[in-house]
Amino acid sequence: MSILTDLRIAAVGDIHLGEDGRGHYRRKLQGIEERADVFMLAGDLTRHGTLEEGKVVADELRDLPIPAVAVLGNHDYHSDMEHEIAEELRDAGVIVLDDDGVVLQCGDMKLGVVGGKGFGGGFAGKCASEFGEREIKNFVAHTRSIAEAWKLALKEIVADERVVLSHYSPIKETLEGEPAEIYPFLGSYLLAEAVDTAGADLILHGHAHKGSPKGMTPGGIRVRNVALPVLGRAYGVYCLDCENGS
Amino acid sequence: MEAPQYVAARVQQALAEDGRTNELGIRVDIRGDQLFLRGQVSEVEQRTRLGQVAHETAPELRLHNEINVVDATEPGEDEHLD
Ligand SMILES: [Fe+2]
Ligand SMILES: [Fe+2]
């Protein structure tokens, strides 16, 4: 017998909480457990990446009624406190991915989530390559090693559905609305290539505040830009149809 | 006189790099002696700070702070992916 169950994922990126956000953000999440099985945060949780802001985010997300999975964004790295911020979030019960994966039990379903901040470099045909100055080579090599880690993590994970959570974009369709000149700083096709190779059911990202909500990888995996200014609402809810053969 | 493009670029850098704002997605346009800020933020205070930093960077220009404040509270409609 096979039954269809929906796996409901609430997601948002770029909430950019400052210290004046304390005590305000949590009310937006009221009742989230009735709408979704899991909450995903696609990075840029803080404004300047200070430890104080990290603590605000951790307190606002503390002990949510559903599991929360997060990655950090470039803003969360700005003050070189990314590890400390991640620890604050983990202490508050948030799962923080850093180019690795986790499997969550949602009812009868196993949901695998793989991801991390991601990085830039641009898109096939119009991208940086590992050539020339050390600075450019380091830039591209950083993205390449991230993509490699995601591919490995996706291949290792055993789950009914697999979602990739990133800050930077794997495709350019969800960047439409941003100036084309800055696409190389908004994402990289290497991320999409890695996920297409290993396979996944959905990719969520943020970062492109002026981008577009929907796109698809060359391999046909759905991509959603969940940056708060793009959603224009507290979070989006994405339902994966799961066929649960038993 | 400095070309307006350079002034606009300097204002945009200031909005991104100033610790009070660190806002990357603001559009800065200069027409004559007028400075226009456009974009979207989630708090009124942030809009005010952006105006302040822009004014300090180019005090000779008349500032028009046209940034929108969008405070998203409702979760909205579900999307079914099948
Ligand atoms: Fe952001
Ligand atoms: Fe970002």
Automatic annotation (TrEMBL), chain A:
Pfam families: Metallophos. SUPFAM superfamilies: Metallo-dependent phosphatases. GO terms for cellular component: membrane. The keyword Metal-binding applies. GO terms for molecular function: metal ion binding; UDP-2,3-diacylglucosamine hydrolase activity. Keywords: Hydrolase, Metal-binding. Gene3D superfamilies: 3.60.21.10. The keyword Iron-sulfur does not apply. Residues 7-210 form the Calcineurin-like phosphoesterase domain. One of its GO terms (biological process) is lipid A biosynthetic process. This is Metallophosphoesterase.
